[in-house]
């Protein structure tokens, strides 16, 4: 058989199918395979009918269809399924061939797979793919990392199918070694969790606090999408709020208030604790989903645990604007925290991430795409060594403009008993970050008192540690100093 396929894709679920059709649209010949082989013929006879897509019914047949170096992309469930598929296809590949994992894999798994396959002479790429079904079909955001020698062989395909910003630049570039691509996708998903939670808190303030109907809220979200909040998530929220069920009533009011999650937000929070980076807003977004899952407990508690009446008496238009400002300011905090985490990871794992480039990759195609990301790219292009997004002149000015409304929204929510964990933690982080002296001096004294953990002094050089015999009954021996 004469090899004629430019790339193979294994996994014919919705994302895999749409990526295949996207590649076909851009002139690439794609060979497809699926563990349930019948799905190959179904796909060729329906969605891929009339295209150049070719089907394989075995790994032997698939490998024979591919030009060298063979490029094989997986779109399968993260975890064991990826490892099992690697082992299944390995006997049919040779030195220099490339395996690409486009699923939501944990970056540590990608680190391991890169090392394992490079030792066998093969190349491995772990690529974040964001944009859902629509993005996969029409242009996703792609975040590839792993074996750098693979990039020249997949660059044309990836950048052709990726979303493009206004000047035609693709939302795809090489991220870094090892699991860097999947790490950036993980942080993207964590920020996505935060954005969604912030929008939900704005919705609850409008619904429970101001008594607004979905139709009234829809109009505000449409208006918000013409401001700094212009984004995919604000846009689809306006669509959701206007969607009617078959009986003509708003469908959103009939959806059970328990949220699911697939794990990437949780991974972001776990990794942030490993790197000692306070991504407090993403953490609150993850925990808010956990609280939502306690539906039966919450319903029972709502009948016994009392609080203030939730209705807000402020003039509606004025308070809606306060909510908008709180949402915008909190969003800035969320991205600042996400970039803090990526900066720490870049140093820890030796990736040398391009932060402006990451913002560009997220500028189109992905779930968190927004006008806002262009400003982040500008900030890092202007100052690649920027230590925190909040210190950029533009974002510092935006926070200043938002503060009064942000504080009004958070304080009113607290007085009225309306939960706004993400709005609140964003404001608390901002106030902590701008505080030149926090009460951790007392905390260090407590640690030294009960555990002889030592402390530093403001009148002595950093890195010099002291222990005090606080009770007069202790000794002079202190614990060793370490950071967990």
The fraction of residues in strands falls at 5-15%
The overall pLDDT average reads 95
How many β-strands, per DSSP? 8
Question: How would you sum up the global shape?
Answer: globular
Widest beta sheet: strand line-up: 3-2-1-4-5-6-7-8
Order of helices and strands: EHEHEHEHEHEHEHEHHHHHHHHHHHH
Structural class: alpha/beta
Question: How are the secondary structure elements laid out?
Answer:
Blueprint: E1 7-10, H1 14-25, E2 30-33, H2 38-45, E3 54-55, H3 59-65, E4 71-74, H4 80-89, E5 98-101, H5 107-118, E6 123-130, H6 132-138, E7 141-146, H7 151-161, E8 176-177, H8 180-209, H9 214-224, H10 232-242, H11 264-274, H12 280-292, H13 295-302, H14 316-349, H15 355-361, H16 372-382, H17 393-416, H18 421-433, H19 440-451
Parallel strand pairs: 1-2, 1-4, 2-3, 4-5, 5-6, 7-8
Antiparallel strand pairs: 6-7
Helix pairs in contact: 1-6, 8-11, 8-12, 8-14, 9-10, 11-12, 12-18, 14-17, 14-18, 15-16
Structural commentary:
The protein is α/β, with parallel strands linked by helices and 484 residues long. Helix content is 52%, strand content 7%. It contains 19 helices and 8 strands. It has helices at 14-25, 38-45, 59-65, 80-89, 107-118, 132-138, 151-161, 180-209, 214-224, 232-242, 264-274, 280-292, 295-302, 316-349, 355-361, 372-382, 393-416, 421-433, 440-451; strands at residues 7-10, 30-33, 54-55, 71-74, 98-101, 123-130, 141-146, 176-177. α2 (38-45) links the parallel β2 (30-33) and β3 (54-55). α8 crosses α12. The longest helix has 34 residues, at 316-349. The protein is globular. The chain starts with 6 loop residues before the first strand and ends in a 33-residue tail after the last helix. The model has no long low-confidence stretch (mean pLDDT 95).
